[in-house]
Amino acid sequence: MTMPSATQANNAIGAFFLSVFGFVWLAAWCLNTPGTGKAELGFIAFVLLVLAAFAVRLYRGNAAAYAVYRQSPEGKRSSMVLGLVNAAQWILIFLFAAVLPKAHTHWFVPGVIFIVGLHFVPLAFALRYRPYLVAAGALVALAALGPWLAAVSPASPLAALGTGIILWLTALHQLVVKPAP
Q1: CB–CB of 139/168 below 8 Å?
Q2: Phi and psi dihedrals of 153, rounded to 5?
Q3: How many C-beta atoms surround the C-beta of residue 34 within 10 A?
Q4: Cβ atoms of residues 156 and 113 within 8 Å
Q5: Which residues does 119 contact at the CB level (< 8 Å), separation at least 6?
Q6: Neighbouring residues of 25: CB distance < 8 A, sequence distance ≥ 6
Q7: Alpha-carbon 118 to chain mean position
Q8: CB of 139 within 8 A of CB of 117?
Q9: Per residue, what are the HEC states of the chain?
Q10: What is the pTM of this model?
Q11: I need a surface site. Which of 11, 87, 120, 169 has the fewest CB within 10 A?
């Protein structure tokens, strides 16, 4: 049996949210791709439930350690940075939507993916979870290169598919890889 860990609880929380957002992106892919339907959407929902269940289980096993951490100066600082970074992310997404010319709305999805990717950089340091830098790099690369690599419109559903997969792989990493002591 392993000792309860605030880091594992924090990873579980991150994995839960990444699972949900990954589901949203994958559902968007499914709903916007001809030939996909209820079976694919059902499978995506099933995977979400599995990931979320493992995240909740991991959190519950480490909740006491996390409660102590949350009251520490580092825990309070991390929580504040998390809130500020997420608020900035959503503000940037709304500003981007507001200033994007109507003739170029097909660039909205890659722009959102780019912003989401960038938001992982400060989180990697604030939460001391360096794999977020890998997720950041993958998402920024997808946003920048995806439209040309897919040889279709920048608004291709493939961008949503790639984003969902990156988020789910990051969530899975948080659930499976144990933090270093």
Answers
A1: no
A2: -60, 150
A3: 6
A4: no
A5: 85, 86, 88, 89, 136
A6: 160, 161, 163, 164, 167
A7: 11
A8: yes
A9: CCCCCHHHHHHHHHHHHHHHHHHHHHHHHHHCCCCCCHHHHHHHHHHHHHHHHHHHHHHHHHHHHHHHHHHCHHHHHHHHHHHHHHHHHHHHHHHHHHHCCHHHHHHHHHHHHHHHHHHHHHHHHHCCCCHHHHHHHHHHHHHHHHHHHCCCCCCCHHHHHHHHHHHHHHHHHHHHCCCCC
A10: 0.91
A11: 87
- pLDDT tens per residue across span 105-122: 878 899 999 999 999 999
Per-residue pLDDT band for 1 (boundaries 50, 70, 90) equals very low
Cβ-based burial of 26 (10 A; exposed 0-12, middle 13-18, buried ≥19): buried
Are 123 and 76 spatial neighbours (Cβ–Cβ below 8 Å)?
Answer: no
Amino acid identity at 21: F
**Single-letter amino acid, residue 40:** E
- Rounded to 5°, the CA angle 45-97-171 comes to 30
| CA-wise closest residue to 51 among 21, 95, 96, 84 | 21
